[in-house]
Amino acid sequence: LVLELDPALVAEALRAGEPDVALVHGYCSVPELPAAGVNTEPLCEEPIYLAVGATGGAGATGIADCRDAAWITATPGTLCHTMTVRACQAAGFRPRVRHRIDGFDTVLALVAAGQGVALVPRLALADPPGGVRLTALPLHRQTRIAYRSGADGHPAVSAFCAALRAAVPTDLR
Q: Backbone phi, then psi, for 24, in 5-degree steps?
């Protein structure tokens, strides 16, 4: 069973036994918070990229260059949204949000269509659409494997965790 859950619900779901294992994210500016009854272990760390299209950010080499651009963010209340807002605030402005999208494929399609700029983690960039220019930023996202406390010794959980670690590109481990 594969579930997509709001991050706020993951710990409760793990403690209830549905699911057995989860992937949780944290960003350098929005760290993952520990949860009672849940253990985590590092899986990978990936850089964050500024994604700009031919318009609406062309020529930008950093977040500050996009202060007047329209922004594409995740929905409010998510870690991705908070990370983007904090990164823009650190660059001296509040983003002018035009679109709120949680799927990175759609975010990149909107960037390619000139609808705004966005911050996107590397693992979301397997096949970006044409017309998107990516600039690595000094930001990163951490992904951790989470499971109920004590479940790490269960053979299925151990096997699944090993498979996840084997699937991560070596440069992100």
A: -125, 145
The two tokens of residue 132 are 């998107």
Listed in sequence order, the DSSP H helices in the chain are 7-15, 79-90, 104-112, 155-167
Please name which of 111, 136, 108, 5 lies closest in space to residue 57, comparing C-alpha atoms: 111
Partner residues linked to 136 by β-bridges: 49
What is the rounded distance in angstroms from the CA atom of residue 58 to the CA atom of residue 56? 6
Tokens 């990370």 belong to residue: 83
Residue 46 is encoded by which pair of tokens? Answer: 């990936």
In this structure, the chain runs to a length of 173
- For the segment 40-94, what is each residue's pLDDT rounded down to a tens digit? 999 999 999 999 997 666 678 899 999 999 999 999 988 899 999 999 999 999 9
Q: Which two tokens stand for residue 136?
A: 């690595």
The distance of Cα 72 from the centroid of its chain, to the nearest Å, equals: 14
Q: Which of 21, 43, 13 is nearest to 159 (CA)?
A: 21
Backbone angles phi, psi at 10, to 5 degrees: -65, -50
Residue corresponding to tokens 């960037």: 111
Cβ contact 145:164 at 8 Å: yes
pTM for the model:
0.88
